[in-house]
Structures are given as C-alpha cells and as structure tokens.
Amino acid sequence: MRKGILVSCSAGNTGPLPGTVNNRDPWLFTVGASTTDRKLRATVRLGDGKEIYGESGFQPKDFSETMLPLIRNVSDAFCSAESLENIDVKGKIVLCVSDGVIAEGGFTAMRKGILVSCSAGNTGPLPGTVNNRDPWLFTVGASTTDRKLRATVRLGDGKEIYGESGFQPKDFSETMLPLIRNVSDAFCSAESLENIDVKGKIVLCVSDGNTSRIGKGHYVKNAGGAGMILVNDELHGFTVSAEPHVVPAAHVSYTDGLKIISYMNSTSNPLATFLFRGTIFEDDFAREVASFSGRGPNRASPGILKPDIVAPGVNILAAWPTKSTFNIASGTSMSCPHVSGIATLVKSTHPDWSPAAIKSAIMTTADLDEKSDLFTTGAGHVNPSRASDPGLIYDIKHEDYVQYLCGLKYPNKAAYMSILRKVNCLSKIAEAELNYPSFSIGLGLEAQTYTRTVTNVGEAVSSYVVEIVPPQGVDVIVDPPLLNFSELNQKKTYQVTFSRESSSSTTKFVQGYLRWTSSKHFVRSPIVVTFK
Question: Keyword DNA repair on this protein (predicted)?
Fold first, then answer.
C-alpha cells in the first residue's frame, strides 16, 4: 500500500458463521465469493410435484426419472458408514449432508498411477478436525522443525523467555523498557489501545482475536509502542510463528506467556527487552505437531487412521512470487508439499510402484512420536532418508477401494458419486480390512481379526519377525509371527487378532504398534483402538 499497490485478499472459506472473515486489516481489499449464472443443472422432483434446483457434474442420459422412495437418517445425515448401518437404503434415494468433493479427483488420479497428497487442514487442535479422510488420499499434518528464528524476552528480574520473530532488527538497544498490557482486553485491537499509554513501552498481546498477529503490531506501532510480546492462548499451546512484524516482537507459547504475566503481577514496575540472535538450530521442542494441524479420529470412516503422517509445516522458508522472493509461512499447505516431494523421489527410484506402495513406504519408515497420540501424528514424522528402502510395502489396488466403499454400506449410486465410476457392490470389505499400513479399530467385547498382505521389496532372501507393542488393555496376536521371503515382489499374508483384556476400561482409546523386523529393515504400523 505504501508503494501505491492495492492488495486484494481472500475473505477465507471458513464461513458462514459471524466473525470468520480473514484478512481484516483496513489497508487490505478483502473479497468474498459469489456465484455465476452458469449451472450444471440437476433438478430434484418431489412426490408432490415440486421441483428443487441443484447441480451435478454427473449427468446420466439413461436415468429413468421413475419416482423412488426418499429417505434420510434423522440423527446423522452425513451418510457415514455408521449412519447407514441401521436403515434400509436399497433402491432408494438418500438425502445426505455434503462433506467434500476432493475425493473424486483423488480417486481418478490414483487409478492413473498418481499419488495425491493433501493437507490435513488447519482447523486443529480439537478432535475430529482432520480433512481429506479418504484412504486413497495421502493426508499430511504439520509439525515443527529444529530451526528457530529466536527472539528472546528478557524480563526485569533477569529471566529469559524464548520466542520467535521474523523481524530481527540489528540495531535494537536491548535497554529495559516498561512492560504493559490491557487487563480487560489483551487482544490489542485498535480500540483496546486507545485508553492506555503505550508510548515507548512493550505491550503484551494475546495472539488470538479478530486481528492478525502482524495487524496487532501495526496497532501497537501506530499507538507509539516500542515493541510487542504475543502470547498464545491455551488452545494453541506451544505453536509460535516467526512472522515479519512491523515492531520488535516475540511470539511466545501459552506456558511462557503465563510466566511473563506472573512476573508482571509480582511487581509495580514490570520491565522487559528483546534479544535478537537470528537463526538457532537443534531446538529441544523440534518436531512437535502444530496446534492448527487437523486431528483425527476420522469421523467419516473410523476404520481408517487419519492423518496419515506429519511433516514440517511451521515457519517454513518458501519461495514467493513477490519482490522479496521468499516468505516464512505455516500451515498444512506447507507440510503437504514436503511429502509430495518425498513421494516424487520414491517414485523416481521405484517407477513401477503404485500410489499405495509409495504411501506405505513413507508411512512405515516414519519416525515415531511418543509425545503425541496417533490421531495427531498418524504414522509419525516423515523420514525421507528411509522412505525409498522400506523392506516391505502394503499395496492396494483401485478395486480394493471400491470394495472398501461398498463395505461402508454406500448405495451403488452414492459410491459412484464418491469416485465417478460404475460400482457394483457384490463384493465388499470392512473398513479395517483394507490393506492399509495402519490399524484403526473400534473394539467391543468380541475379538476382531483382520488380514494384511505385504510385498517384499527389500532383500530377495529375507526373514521378518514381528514385534508388538500392544495398546494398553488390548491383547494383540499376529499369525504367523515370522515371514520368510525367497524372492523380490513375493507376497505374504498375516492376520492380526485384537481382543480386550477387560471390559471395565474407562479410557476412550489406546495405542501401540506392530513392527516387522529383518536384519536390514523395520516396517512399523501404528495401532489405535477405540473402545466401544
């Protein structure tokens, strides 16, 4: 704007609730979305003769237009597997609440041999917020790296609090300055700073609210403030951003923010300053999953663990189509390209591998994160150095996905609309029976047995022995416990039986893993069990 350039920005896709607009600063031109006058018309004719106009990319010429029974599940209209279990949908039209269309293109790409990696979404950290939940999509969450753009807050009592900032002024004097906050409104909006004297002072601001973090800095600067400390709320925890602030600033975690507030409450003259030391490496909090990263469980298909994996997605130095040529950005849209690149490298090494094989290789060689649950990390943190040599792979053909869809008790036409191809549900499998590299089990009092098939892509002559770390309160038996291979691409099948050790557990879910180990490889599959 200062250069005479009008910047137009998206209002965001998080409506329609009030207060969901993005890019709210007054110097930005914030644009919402409207429809056009072009439609792919699909009309619903009801039994009373009324017609309801809709749209559809599927326009069959041979549809008979015969009146059919129209039903819906009143208690769950999303048409998940569970919602269709106890109602008769055969030969009927089912009313469903729409829940995404990316699956269609992803399935078509998979059939063409293309692996589609997708963001897990930035609506975490609450459970069930993961996006792109179909098993043929590679769903990627976001984690931190060991690189930090350090901005240290030194308090008047000598304590130092580590934060981050993309603005690293070399001429900051490090002189102690008064530290203040608006106790009744700490979000640092323009209004909250009107009635307090911030001139020459460092202002503590809560990072959430209706103003962007950088926007808060503009308000502090316009009010005469000398600097800003951004404090996370409890929901966003330890995830901090290194952003190009307009004033000296540090973004600190919720826990560290409480320490700063405690200091401010302990003295009548709180002071602070900043120490800017640039990039540091080997941070102790590396590879934590970002608060915004979408979490499981997979509400649409609980038998498929999502996200599949996590990759670097916080404070990523990225090329940018502007004069500066780079930007520091965070989001699962930053972690997803990491996995896309790794998948490309694996594909270049193994050009004959299917999308499912590549996905399996990346998941089973991931690094385990024992600090987070599997609904947060999936198989773990991606490890690109091991992905091209996994030893064993779990392969899936597109026909298997069709059987999986039919196992969800979708009507043929509903399954068609998920993958845009003809479906005949004469053959079907349970969700957890899909040859997936992970296990997500809903376990009641009866034992459950599932089958997996692995393909040898490591040493031609090799033996793998199973190691089990069972979820607490669950007995896990693998048969056979030893797999012997005599050639490459040889397939071996094993069964896993899950049973509860007690019916009195109050825990909602537990987790563990099974690992096939040879002299040169280990192939790990995460296990999450939800008690029914």
Answer: no
**pLDDT of 506 above 50:** yes
Contact 429, 410 (CB under 8 A): no
Q: What is the pLDDT of residues 413-455, one digit of tens each?
A: 455 555 555 667 778 899 999 999 999 999 999 999 999 999 9
Q: Where a domain ends, among 242, 258, 278?
A: 278
Q: Contact, 71 vs 90, CB < 8 A?
A: no
Tally of CA atoms within 13 A in the half-sphere of 143 that contains its CB = 26
Containing structural domain, residue 460? 435-532
> Which CATH number characterizes residue 489's domain?
2.60.40.2310
Rounded distance between C-alpha atoms, residue 213 and residue 234, angstroms: 16
Total domains in the chain come to 2
Kindly list the distances between the CA atom of residue 196 and the CA atoms of 193, 267, 530, in Å, as whole numbers in the listed order. 6, 19, 51
Pair of tokens at residue 114: 């293309």
With a cut of 60, say whether residue 10 has pLDDT above it. Answer: yes
Percent above pLDDT 90 for the chain: 61
- Give residue-wise pLDDT tens across range 233-245: 998 899 999 999 9
Write the DSSP symbol of residue 233: -
CA distance 502 to 316: 46
The residue type of 365 is T
Residue 252 DSSP label = E
Q: Per residue in 323-360, pLDDT tens?
A: 778 888 999 999 999 999 999 999 999 999 999 999 99
- The span from the CA of 198 to the CA of 178, in Å, is 9
- Which residue from 259, 188, 240, 176 is spatially nearest to 219, judged by alpha carbons? 188
499 belongs to a structural domain: yes
Q: From CA 94, how far away is CA 78, in angstroms rounded? A: 10
In whole angstroms, how far apart are CA 189 and each of 211, 223, 227, 272, 374? Answer: 7, 11, 15, 22, 38
Looking up residue 274, the CATH number of its domain turns out to be 3.50.30.30
